[in-house]
Amino acid sequence: MPRITVKTNVFLNREKKYRMTLEFKEAIELIPCEKGSFVMADFEDEAFMLFGDEAASDPCAAIEVAVIQDAIDKYDKEIFVQVLARMTETVMKYTQIPEDRIFAYYRNSPLWTYKRQDIIGTLVHV
């Protein structure tokens, strides 16, 4: 069962949360083994969040996606980047937060996106 958590410092009404969940269900189905009907979404809006050197009131968001690790190991990484890109677009659409103020990532995975691009390779050099 995929679980998607959106944390943001902006207010999201019930309707926006519902519509975002519908779009997340479509995005998760890009992963061949996942079903949108099993998506669980939760939202933490109006959270205290800081991003970079900006003021605390500047809008930002983080999208965390939890899927079975076997799925991440089995399928092409590009599929998972596309899922996070679509989810980032959804959050942008319903919050008006610009893409450079949103991080999206898979829980317990070396795949993080920023501006809808995979960035972990530029951040971590092992």
Overall helicity: 25-40%
Number of strands: 6
From the N-terminal CA to the C-terminal CA, the straight-line distance is 31 Å
Structural class: alpha/beta
CATH fold name, please? Macrophage Migration Inhibitory Factor
- As a percent range, the share of strand residues is 15-25%
Which second-level CATH architecture applies? 2-Layer Sandwich
Number of domains: 1
State the CATH class: Alpha Beta
Oligomeric composition of the shown chains = single chain
- Unreliable sequence segments: none
| Number of helical regions | 4
What do the pLDDT scores average to? 87
Encode the helix/strand succession as letters: EHEEHHEEEH
Write up what this structure looks like:
It contains four helices and six strands, in the order βαββααβββα. It is α/β, with parallel strands linked by helices and 126 residues long. It has one domain (3-123): Macrophage Migration Inhibitory Factor (2-Layer Sandwich). A six-stranded mixed beta sheet has the order 2-1-3-4-5-6, with helices on one face. It is globular and about 40 Å long. The mean pLDDT is 87.
